[in-house]
Every structure is written in structure tokens, then in C-alpha cells.
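Quick one, C-alpha cells below. Sequence please?
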């Protein structure tokens, strides 16, 4: 393992009994887990290559308990790692040996649904799919739909700014969250945003969504719900080359069509998904593009015809449109199962997450293929093609010496390539520990220091989720110190105190 975490603080570990006792006073009953065997259930998140047993696990049930836990830890200089359902693929919820792991799984209620305002107020432990389940009887749904939506929690979606197959048209989590209740490290409870689309003041919701547990702990979320489209249809389009599929993606968007979803899979991913769920994917193609449109039936019929014409012009060798809802869901079942299906191909894999301009898709996929040969590791590509969000699945065997390190290096090269062609390090999984040491590839030292200043405004003691996102975390006092350049201070004419 090449990713290093901060060395545990021995003094904190020596106080473990006192910390556990204090937490039991705040969260009585079964709200504290300190048995080393029981805590192993929390020793990693979805990035399972990295594991660490936490100091202690707390499972609060109320905002007051979260506030009291954070306040006590703040007063006593104890670090805290927030955790939702643990499906993070970037190591964002990796525990630390000297930190309290605060798990929000008991915050699992839908508090309010307002169809007039088209919002739902939910606790952070509610799963993504459960929001849709709570409102679907009235003809509504929650648009962001990560592949892990059956398990991932809304709080984790907020932390990582999760996406999904329908985010091309309807946006990521940040576009669908209107308000939140957040507890700061010192225990203060804030309400930011609200039920309205454009609240007054600074866009603190935009700051909190995607902050990866570095600024505070979310205890309530207000999300947008949308009326379910009248009709949804999908196209399953096969291509002889990945380049043709990439060109089709760009041509569809260039034609002014914004599908509800646009997903691309290469041959290894197609075969793995079909063997896993058997939904009738063509096995004689190199790339499979799934395009969904929604809206009134007449509009869907028109767009299906338009996309079919574009696909044929781009070199499609097969094109099949869903004829009913069951067939449409079948098209998506394979894509949604692509990640677990990859587990049939290899004992271990790392799911990468980077975003590139759509027009660079063919070039980037070819270069990933070259890297695969160079590293001697297989890769299956599954990604949100419409917005250029890549998910290469790098397959390796952790029991073979050197393969994990090779997979890490392979993944780093993919992310460097994403930045090189004008993209970014993450499209939806976040930075966590996986991409932490690559942040200087995308950001200058000045950029990173300004981001850290924002963290200091929320968490001046730097106790929340340490070791994540920033490759080198400066103390807040260091970020605010006077910079002297060649013996000159800024604005030398101003009096100094």
C-alpha cells in the first residue's frame, strides 16, 4: 500500500477508556461500539484495499447527540471521522486509529414530503433509493441515482456530491439539494439553504455538498423531488470500435439532444454484465452505448429516431429501442450491475473516477488500453459518457506481490491523463485518500491553501476527517501568517501592529 495516513496520536490512544466512557454518557445503550472484533465491520469503506480499525465507533440517533459528541471531542482534542453507509469508493470514510468514527446509519427517517414545494426532508442515513420509494406513489422521484443507490445514503451523497446515470439531464447531488442541517466541530448546529430554489446570502449549500466530511456533519437534508416523466425509453446501441461509440456520444450532444442518461461500456464490461444479469446485451460488439430519453411519448419517439440516425452515421452495427418498461429496466440492469459483475472477472479491482471533455473519449480510452498492456493488468471501462465521467475498473489480485501497487500506479496515470486532456480528478466519487496525493496535479499550492482556509473557517482545530483530500494539511495559523517576499511585506505603507 503506497497511500500513507497521518501517524496516530499515542496520547489520544492512551485515553481510549476515558473517551469511550464519555461517549457512553452521550449515547447510552448500544450507541457505542468499542470491541475490536465488532469494530472490524467499520474498518474500511468501498475502497476495500485500505483498512484501519477505528479508535471507537459511535452511533448517535439525534442531532443533539451528534452535537454533544462533536463538542466533547472538540473540547478534548479528539479527531472525528464521519461515516454514512460506507459505500464511498475513494476512502473518504476510512477510519483512523486515533479518531472517533461517528456512524449516521440510525438517522434513517423521511421527515417530511411537500409535493406543493416539490421537496422531501430526510435524515442523512436514508438510502438514495428510499427517497424515490417514499414519493413514487404520488408520481414523484429523486433524480440522482448512483449505481449503489440501493445502499448508499443521502448523507454520503452530499459528502461526495454523488452522481448517477441520469445526472446528465438532471444534475448531480449539488443540483438537487436545497437545504441542510449541519453540526460543526464545536457542536454548533446550523441550518443552511431552505426549501426555496435560490436562498439569499452566500451559497453555503454549494460549499457543504462535496466537502467530504471536512467541514461538519450533516444531520438533515432537504432535496428536490421531480414529477416522474410521462414516458421513458432507452436505446441499446452496439459499435465495432470504442472510437465510433465515443464519436456518437459527441454527435448526439452536438445535435442539441440532452438525453436523460447516456452510458458507455466496453467489451470486458459488456461480457461481465451479461454473464451476471443476462439481459440480452450483444456480445459481438466492442462498445455498447445506452441512451435514455424521457418526456411526452411524441417527443420520445422523435428523439429515438434522431439518435438512431446519428448512431448509424457514427458507425453503429446494432441499435435496439426498448418497447416497454420492463425492457428499458433490463437495459439498465446490466449497467447498474457492472461493478459487482466485475467481481466475477478478478478477485480484486479498483474503481477509478475521473472526468474528461467528451471529444477526448476515443483518445483517452485508447491510452488507457496502452496503459493496461504496460502494467499487465486488465481493465473494464464503464462510464457516464454524456458528461465524460470515466469509471475504469482496474483488476488485480491482492495475493500477488506488487499487483496492488501496480493497480495504484495505473489508476494514478489514468487520473493524470484526465487532467492532461482538460478534465478533473473526480466526477462524483470525491478525493478521499485515493486521489489525495494527486491534488497538486490539478491545483497549485495557492489553490490548495485557499481551499484549506475554507476548512479552517469551519474546523479551526482540524479535527474533522483528517488525512483526507489535502496532501499536506497546514495549520490554520500557518495559512494566516504574513508572507514576506525578498524582505518586503504587502502594502508597506500601512501601519503594522
Amino acid at each position: 500500500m503506497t497511500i500513507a495516513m497521518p501517524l496516530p496520536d499515542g496520547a489520544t490512544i492512551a485515553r481510549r477508556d476515558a473517551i469511550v466512557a464519555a461517549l457512553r454518557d452521550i449515547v447510552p445503550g448500544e450507541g457505542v461500539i468499542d470491541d475490536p472484533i465488532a469494530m472490524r465491520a467499520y474498518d474500511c469503506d468501498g475502497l476495500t484495499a485500505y483498512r484501519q480499525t477505528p479508535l471507537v465507533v459511535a452511533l448517535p440517533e439525534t442531532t443533539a447527540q451528534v452535537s454533544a459528541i462533536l463538542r466533547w471531542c472538540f473540547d478534548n482534542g479528539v479527531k472525528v471521522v464521519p461515516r454514512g453507509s460506507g459505500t464511498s469508493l475513494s476512502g473518504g470514510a476510512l477510519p483512523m486509529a486515533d479518531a472517533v468514527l461517528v456512524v449516521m446509519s440510525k438517522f434513517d427517517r423521511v421527515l417530511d414530503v411537500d409535493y406543493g414545494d416539490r421537496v422531501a426532508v430526510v435524515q442523512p442515513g436514508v438510502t438514495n433509493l428510499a427517497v424515490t420509494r417514499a414519493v413514487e406513489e404520488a408520481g414523484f422521484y429523486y433524480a440522482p441515482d448512483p449505481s449503489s443507490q440501493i445502499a448508499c445514503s443521502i448523507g454520503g451523497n452530499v459528502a461526495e456530491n454523488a452522481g448517477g446515470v441520469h445526472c446528465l439531464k438532471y444534475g448531480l447531488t449539488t443540483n438537487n439539494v436545497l437545504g441542510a442541517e449541519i453540526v460543526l466541530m464545536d457542536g454548533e448546529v446550523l441550518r443552511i439553504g431552505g426549501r426555496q430554489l435560490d436562498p439569499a446570502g452566500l451559497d453555503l449549500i454549494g460549499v457543504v455538498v462535496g466537502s467530504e466530511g471536512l467541514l461538519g456533519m450533516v444531520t438533515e437534508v432537504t432535496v428536490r423531488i421531480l414529477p416522474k416523466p410521462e414516458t421513458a425509453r432507452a436505446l441499446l446501441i452496439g459499435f465495432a470500435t470504442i472510437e465510433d461509440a465515443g464519436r456518437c456520444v459527441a454527435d448526439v450532444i452536438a445535435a442539441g439532444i440532452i438525453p436523460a442518461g447516456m452510458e458507455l461500456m466496453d467489451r470486458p464490461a459488456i461480457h461481465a454484465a451479461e454473464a451476471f444479469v443476462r439481459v440480452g446485451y450483444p456480445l459481438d460488439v466492442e462498445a455498447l452505448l445506452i441512451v435514455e430519453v424521457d418526456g411526452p411519448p411524441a417527443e420520445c419517439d422523435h428523439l429515438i429516431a434522431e439518435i438512431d440516425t446519428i448512431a448509424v452515421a457514427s458507425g453503429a452495427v446494432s441499435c435496439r429501442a426498448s418497447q416497454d418498461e420492463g425492457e428499458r429496466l433490463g437495459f439498465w440492469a446490466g449497467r447498474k450491475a457492472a461493478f459487482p459483475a466485475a467481481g466475477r472477472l478478478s478477485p480484486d479491482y479498483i474503481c477509478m473516477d475521473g472526468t474528461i471533455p467528451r471529444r477526448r473519449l476515443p483518445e483517452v480510452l485508447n491510452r488507457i488500453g496502452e496503459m493496461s498492456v504496460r502494467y499487465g493488468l486488465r481493465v473494464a471501462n464503464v462510464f457516464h459518457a454524456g458528461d465524460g465521467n470515466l469509471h475504469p475498473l482496474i483488476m488485480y489480485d491482492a495475493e500477488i506481490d506488487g499487483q496492488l501497487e501496480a493497480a495504484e500506479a495505473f489508476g494514478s496515470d489514468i487520473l493524470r491523463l484526465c487532467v492532461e486532456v482538460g478534465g478533473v480528478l473526480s466526477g462524483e466519487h470525491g478525493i478521499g485518500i485515493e486521489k489525495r496525493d494527486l491534488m497538486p496535479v490539478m491545483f497549485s499550492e495557492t489553490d490548495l491553501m485557499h481551499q484549506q482556509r475554507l476548512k479552517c473557517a469551519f474546523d479551526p482545530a482540524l479535527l474533522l476527517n483528517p488525512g483526507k483530500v489535502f496532501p499536506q494539511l497546514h495549520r490554520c495559523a500557518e495559512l494566516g501568517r504574513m508572507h514576506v517576499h525578498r524582505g518586503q511585506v504587502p502594502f508597506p505603507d500601512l501601519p503594522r501592529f
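The two ends are 49 Å apart (CA to CA). The domain at 233-430 is CATH 3.40.462.10 (Vanillyl-alcohol Oxidase; Chain A, domain 3).
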